[in-house]
């Protein structure tokens, strides 16, 4: 029974790796197209022709692009992301900490958001088209429609400035206890939760409602099961695939799309790190971060695919 | 009531309220005279530096690309943190005088060409070594080397030889320069062991704080250096911390929420709101920084002085100062110097005059629109300022076409490249520095392409002149020349607007740079 699943999984992973390679070419090409170069960006207002020439030579910017690509790819495969051109720090070391911070924030936002969204979705289905359903949808859609920075500022204003329950800035660093860290990220995690909530909730609601039309749900109802039991036992398991998909998409968003929230709450994550280096044209860092984001995205999508396959007997036992 | 008494007693300690007035007001609040007197004495004690505690600043101007190498410092966070861990050769005090630090004495030959720095005894680096003349000489050598990419390179190039001789460092200049000691107060010139030649970003100097945490773009922490040579003047808090907060709203929220004790760059448009917050004090003061529109004097159509004059007369400075800076600044007069510079002289204020502008515009023979490039990053409010300019110029019959450029790449692609654009200058500590950086024919940053051999001669002559009165007259003549013939349109000088939270003591306004010229963390303290 397991062999077709293993084969499917292997296929997905192989495709993912191929895709990642293609992405690496795109990222490299993209960073070459950016106007200006690192030397100019580092020197900024103080660039003079001589200092530009000196710096370009020192950074090896005079080699042809394809040589630099293979050089870079070789480094990445051996775990060496190079050094940041602008500050001379080892990229892998700086990214490790930043990535950990981003994942920490994403993890806690997800821990709150996913169960909340799915539960709200289930409740909305149970009371579909009633006032409970409409209120849940309305509030969730409203919180998603507001831009992230607006929600962020509202939370800061109310919880940090007016009441001072939580800090307005979420700087985290080594030596903070878990409790302190959680307090520091409470507001950004709340903002992220509000942003991703509606998408997952609405998808859960739609997927389950779709299944609710089926004959076997009607049978279950006729058997006399309670409304929640019907949803939990019969509708939800059959609607799980699209829900997993949308959950994974939102997880990916929590990792790669949080720049604005990071800036507002001054959270030292990957997004802020990327933006700083894009403005400095620090190509090695931009490439490394781009690749990591792509890997996260692709990996989460593979997981979603595999989960959907495992959850669906028709895909598990193809005829 | 206690709050009010606290406030009043602090005002007495600060010399802003007389003792008699205080006792009178205290009595009005129903406090007995002995109690009021005891309050006063505790306030006076509190007015002296208080040791201990942590002082935190939330600052804009830090990126994850920052380095501890003083040569590469450019933005506010490395600058302010540098003043915590770094020790300078000489320092510019708030009143514009020079205060010797690592140099005990600075003397020059009569022609201002050979300068001798006597190095103070017994100053210790954070690594336990003693600061020697060799270290100072090596520091200056590193910053004069083209390869160091030092922000101070421009001035340092003027030094021909640097020699350490016992306890003295002898500098021989290529050309006489009466301002050399001022140049040595440049914030890049942090003295490092062996000049930082071994490891430029080691973060070791002889300043009041040792670098404890260095996470570029996130936070920097300094721990009091027990052997600091001047512990009574600086290094009052046990620990200082800079948190990088680039977002203006987050910065203000952090100050209001009490996470930081001071912030920089409060936006002019919210100053009046912040003022009303309890415990927050706005610290605004004028400095040499200015916002400008710059024309290339050698590029058509701006190579015509009548057109330049027309554009200078067509800008409404008062309106711009009030609307863009909300009054937190002062009027500009088309030369880059104001009262914050030594040897400044007043020159008649240029006013908005549409009729005269029309006259010069006609005389220039120019026809059609003039293209002005602007961007959000040129200076805060630069896009609004350009629009105001467009309207005031339209009244003089001059059509300005505004092109908004992306902030990303503005300094590479537009500034110092395009013939007419918005920009800003932070200013320098002396007139000579300002003119040498941006108005000499040979200057890389001559962003108005003001290339006049007669002006260059005046700059060099003023630089070598040791007679102050004569020098003042020379600077006056140079200013008039830039004002009437240059490519600079300078509508306003901006103010630094910092803010401090409750209980921050020891603040002294400094006209040279924001945050007490960067020394706020090193010189302030937390009141008990």
Instruction: Look at the helices and sheets of chain A and give the structural class.
Output: mainly alpha
What percent strand of chain A? under 5%
CATH class designation of one domain in chain A: Mainly Alpha
CATH homolog superfamily of one domain in chain A: MetI-like
Structural class of chain B: alpha+beta
Largest sheet of chain B: 9 strands, mixed
- Which parts of chain B are unreliable, with pLDDT below 50 for 5 consecutive residues or more? none
Mean pLDDT of chain A: 84
Radius of gyration of chain B (Å): 25 Å
CATH fold annotation of one domain in chain A? MetI-like fold
> Which pair has the most extensive contact?
A-B, 43 and 41 residues
Q: What is the strand tally of chain A?
A: 0
Low-confidence stretches of chain A: none
Distance between the termini of chain A: 12 Å
Task: Please work out how many helical segments of chain A DSSP would assign.
Answer: 14
Count of DSSP H/I helices of chain B = 19
Please state the overall shape of chain A, judged from the principal axes of the Cα atoms. globular
The general outline of chain B is globular
Report the major sheet of chain A.
Answer: none
Number of strands of chain B: 19
Short description:
By secondary structure, chain A is an all-alpha fold. In chain A, 79% of the residues lie in helices and 0% in strands. Chain A has helices at 2-33, 38-43, 49-59, 65-77, 91-126, 131-145, 148-162, 178-212, 215-223, 227-256, 259-264, 270-279, 283-311, 313-316.
What topology does this entry show?
The complex is a heterodimer of chains A (319) and B (528).
Chain A: H1 2-33, H2 38-43, H3 49-59, H4 65-77, H5 91-126, H6 131-145, H7 148-162, H8 178-212, H9 215-223, H10 227-256, H11 259-264, H12 270-279, H13 283-311, H14 313-316
Chain B: H1 2-13, H2 19-28, H3 33-47, E1 54-59, H4 76-85, E2 90-92, E3 98-100, E4 103-108, E5 114-119, H5 133-144, H6 153-156, E6 159-165, E7 168-173, H7 180-183, E8 209-215, E9 219-224, E10 239-244, H8 248-256, E11 262-263, H9 271-275, E12 281-295, H10 305-313, H11 317-324, E13 329-331, H12 354-364, E14 370-374, H13 382-394, E15 400-404, H14 410-413, E16 420-425, H15 431-438, H16 453-464, H17 468-485, E17 488-500, E18 504-505, H18 514-517, H19 520-523, E19 525-526
Parallel strand pairs in B: 1-10, 1-11, 14-15
Antiparallel strand pairs in B: 2-3, 4-5, 5-7, 6-7, 8-9, 9-10, 11-17, 12-16, 12-17, 13-17, 18-19
Helix pairs in contact in B: 1-2, 1-3, 2-3, 10-12, 11-13, 16-17
